[in-house]
RNA sequence: GGGGGAGUGUCCCGAGCGGCAAAGGGGGCGGACUGUAAAUCCGCUGGCUAUGCCUUCGUAGGUUCGAGUCCUACCUCCCCCA
């Protein structure tokens, strides 16, 4: 379909969120005529979502912005099973405590993108543990299990990859898609949910839910998936210099988050502006034209806009300013990530290797630090370290009273005497 | 239940006649070149109080001066038969 009538689908379409829809026309009509409730499931496999999950959150955001009701479903129940879709190995089983802790932590981020409440268009946060944890096995098998054909489930790509590689798929994991399908139906019954969205890897699971709905008498349900995110050169989204790009502020600061987007590949800039910012489309079109000479300026706007949504406008601007001082003036920005060290320790002297590995945590081990010295990757106060026996003392403090440690061109940590 | 095959460096894949910190990829990281980009080229990719020491090849034992490599038991997975 070339044009959608509903604001929601038109927005998603023009911004590049849509990979597949189960029934474009039907769904468009639904969105055009009523307030729709739709959900996306989030697995509590870590204490924070990372950049890869941002696209789902943005879809929920646009739902609300266009007058509908988004539901974020926490997988407190399904998390006990683990989604095997397109995975090679079974996941480590998580304890209930871990799952609950992860959910509590993940939740914090959503309020930055959605407004919650009791109104008809206020977002909902729901945990599928509410209905999954107390299921009666036999009842469940008879009411729900009988609608599933194992033959059909085995035919899904998400499972086939696992089987083709001759890797085992436990019965536990195999049940994941049944539970997810059941979630969809249950959410329809409880909250009138009509649509489930997700990454393209979720297509099979979502369609299963639609089928189950048919058999269990729900109204027509719909599926909408977003494209799998990779950068223009094919790398997976969401990994930064120091690891995963977490959304929770306590796991990744605003500065590092900003840096991640600042380093976007040229070819990705227009696409990311559409997906991850709420800038109007004509503004994005204008910025995309600048992509030649001023692309670096556009990348800063991109980074600042995305960071502002998550961490707040002032934190985003502070991050931009820190980066400007650090990279453009080659100077020393006081609010780079910093680590405190006892001034007594510094008086006694800290070996460079230990400073980089143990104190700043910029490298994984002393050995790694030693190797980096050999390839010239470490700098103290912008001077390349050439001797791995060098010792940092009070004399290395800059006039600002810190020691700047750099690993590569982009990673900097300040040592600050306590 | 019977028979056959497999598990290697804590990112992944994958070689490995009893002398092995273990080939080769991919990925990742650093350097050069650039624009905090991409592409390309070069280097690195167990730990440490380091001319040495310690820990690694599914787990636990055993043979041996010496075991990823041989033997035994166990665990897990795959395939065939029942």
Which radius of gyration do the C-alpha atoms yield?
25 Å
* Apparent shape: globular
Number of strands: 15
Low-confidence parts lasting 5 or more residues at pLDDT below 50? none
Percent of residues in helical segments? 40-55%
Main β-sheet description: 6 strands, mixed
Helical stretch tally:
19
Motif ('HIGH' region): 44-53
Subcellular location: Cytoplasm
Motif ('KMSKS' region): 236-240
Binding site for L-tyrosine: 39, 176, 180
Secondary structure layout:
Blueprint: H1 7-14, E1 20-21, H2 24-33, E2 37-42, H3 54-65, E3 69-74, H4 96-110, E4 124-127, H5 129-132, H6 137-143, H7 150-154, H8 157-164, H9 171-174, H10 176-191, E5 195-199, H11 203-216, E6 222-226, E7 239-240, E8 243-244, H12 254-262, H13 269-276, H14 281-289, H15 295-311, H16 313-328, E9 338-341, H17 343-348, E10 350-351, H18 352-359, H19 366-374, E11 378-380, E12 383-384, E13 391-392, E14 403-407, E15 411-417
Parallel strand pairs: 2-3, 2-5, 3-4, 5-6, 9-15
Antiparallel strand pairs: 1-6, 7-8, 10-13, 11-12, 11-14, 14-15
The protein binds one RNA strand of 82 nucleotides through helix 15, helix 16 and helix 19.
Task: Describe the overall structure.
There is one protein chain. The protein is an alpha/beta fold. The protein has 19 helices and 15 strands. It has helices at 7-14, 24-33, 54-65, 96-110, 129-132, 137-143, 150-154, 157-164, 171-174, 176-191, 203-216, 254-262, 269-276, 281-289, 295-311, 313-328, 343-348, 352-359, 366-374; strands at residues 20-21, 37-42, 69-74, 124-127, 195-199, 222-226, 239-240, 243-244, 338-341, 350-351, 378-380, 383-384, 391-392, 403-407, 411-417. The strands form four sheets. A six-stranded mixed beta sheet has the order 1-6-5-2-3-4, with helices on both faces. Strand 14 (403-407) and strand 15 form a beta hairpin. The longest helix has 17 residues, at 295-311. It binds one RNA strand of 82 nucleotides through residues 88, 166-168, 232-233, 235, 239, 241, 259, 262-269, 295-296, 299, 323, 326-328, 363, 365-368, 371-372, 374-378, 407-410.
């Amino acid at each position: 379909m070339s044009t959608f009538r509903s604001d929601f689908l038109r927005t998603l379409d023009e911004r590049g969120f849509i990979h597949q829809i189960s029934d474009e026309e039907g769904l468009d009509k639904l969105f055009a005529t009523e307030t729709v409730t739709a959900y996306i499931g989030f697995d509590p496999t870590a204490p924070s979502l990372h950049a890869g999950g941002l696209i789902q959150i943005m879809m929920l955001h646009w739902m609300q912005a266009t007058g509908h009701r988004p539901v974020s479903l926490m997988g407190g129940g399904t998390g006990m099973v683990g989604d095997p879709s397109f995975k090679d190995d079974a996941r480590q089983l998580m304890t209930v405590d871990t799952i609950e802790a992860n959910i509590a932590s993940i939740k914090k981020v959503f309020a930055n993108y959605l407004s919650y409440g009791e109104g008809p268009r206020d977002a909902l946060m729901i945990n599928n543990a509410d209905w999954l944890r107390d299921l009666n096995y036999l009842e469940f098998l008879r009411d729900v299990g009988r609608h599933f054909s194992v033959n059909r489930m085995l035919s899904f790509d998400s499972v086939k990859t696992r089987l083709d590689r001759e890797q085992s798929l436990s019965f536990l994991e195999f049940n994941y898609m049944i539970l997810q399908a059941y979630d969809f139906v249950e959410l329809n019954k409880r909250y009138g949910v009509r649509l489930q969205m997700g990454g393209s890897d979720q297509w099979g699971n979502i369609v299963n839910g639609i089928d189950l709905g048919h058999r269990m008498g729900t109204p027509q349900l719909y599926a909408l998936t977003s494209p799998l995110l990779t950068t223009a050169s094919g790398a997976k989204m969401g990994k930064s210099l120091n690891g995963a790009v977490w959304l929770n502020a306590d796991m990744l600061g605003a500065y590092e988050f900003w840096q991640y987007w600042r380093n976007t590949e040229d070819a990705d800039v227009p696409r990311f502006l559409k997906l991850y910012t709420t800038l109007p489309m004509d503004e994005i079109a204008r910025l995309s034209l600048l992509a030649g000479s001023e692309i670096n300026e556009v990348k800063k706007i991109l980074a600042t806009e995305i960071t502002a949504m998550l961490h707040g406008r002032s934190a985003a601007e502070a991050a931009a300013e820190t980066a400007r001082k650090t990279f453009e003036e080659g100077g020393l920005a006081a609010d780079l990530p910093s680590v405190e060290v006892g001034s007594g320790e510094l008086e006694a002297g800290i070996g460079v290797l230990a400073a980089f590995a143990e104190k700043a945590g910029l490298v994984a081990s002393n050995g790694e630090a030693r190797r980096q010295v050999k390839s010239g990757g470490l700098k103290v106060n912008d001077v390349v370290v050439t001797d791995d026996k060098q010792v940092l003392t009070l004399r290395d403090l800059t006039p600002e009273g810190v020691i700047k440690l750099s690993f590569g061109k982009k990673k900097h940590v300040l040592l600050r005497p306590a």
